[in-house]
Design a protein that fits this description.
With 217 residues, the protein is an alpha+beta fold. Helix content is 14%, strand content 30%. It has 1 helix and 9 strands. The longest helix is centred in the N-terminal third of the chain and has 30 residues. The chain starts with a helix and ends with a strand. 20% of the residues are buried.
Length: 217
């Protein structure tokens, strides 16, 4: 074999090597340009968490909504409160409703003392010890009967979800689904017993408080 033949064979091997290198390189290019795709799932859509405000409200005598959710509360008018004397009684009915579209409300009610001990103001006798409390629910079932303020508490049970848009303070009340509203009729008796005469001109600072815990239906 002459030198030219040897050179030709060596050149052929180089060309094959180069060709192989090109093929390998082409294979690499195909791999790096492969099709890709992805799927992104937004958990919960708009976000995770309850999108409404859990809320209960009261209905005023004029048919509008009151939230009464501040520490100061709302001054609920009780007919005859300013003329209550020993041996007398006053009553008032407070409608309450679940203002939450999709959650039920496990609701309780209780009498609480304002200003810490029920005192209206300095110098005014506090007649709280002479008051007794009774309450019934919307169906007329007794919640508590003839008890002192610290025993005047009961459960109203479960108020169903409103099932409609939330109402704001001042809105005209419109009923939600059946079972989403209730009412408490509270009666306050002023005992006419020995010693009460020393409390002439006395008053008591009281409030009726509703508490609710959300329950998923």
């Amino acid at each position: 074999m002459n030198d030219s033949t040897k050179r030709s064979h060596r050149s052929g091997r180089r060309r094959l090597a180069v060709s192989a290198g090109v093929l390998l390189l082409a294979g690499t290019l195909v791999s790096s340009a492969a099709f890709v795709d992805q799927a992104t799932l937004n958990l919960g859509g708009g976000g995770i968490g309850f999108p409404y405000t859990f809320d209960i409200g009261a209905v005023l005598p004029d048919g509008t909504v009151e939230q009464a959710d501040t520490d100061a509360g709302y001054d609920w008018v009780v007919d005859g409160a300013q003329t209550l004397v020993p041996g007398g009684s006053v009553s008032t009915t407070v409608p309450v409703f679940n203002n939450t579209p999709t959650l039920a409300a496990d609701t309780t009610v209780e009498v609480v003392l304002r200003n810490g001990d029920g005192t209206v103001a300095a110098g005014i006798p506090n007649i709280t010890p002479f008051l007794r409390f009774s309450a019934t629910d919307q169906a007329g079932t007794a919640l508590f009967t003839d008890v002192t303020w610290d025993a005047a508490r009961a459960t109203l049970g479960l108020l169903a979800p409103r099932g409609a848009a939330e109402l704001s303070a001042g809105d005209a009340y419109t009923a939600g689904q059946v079972g989403s509203e209730g009412a408490v009729t509270l009666t306050i008796d002023y005992l006419d017993v020995p010693g009460v005469e020393a409390f002439n001109g006395g008053q008591a600072a009281l409030a009726l408080r509703f508490d609710a815990t959300s329950v998923a239906p």
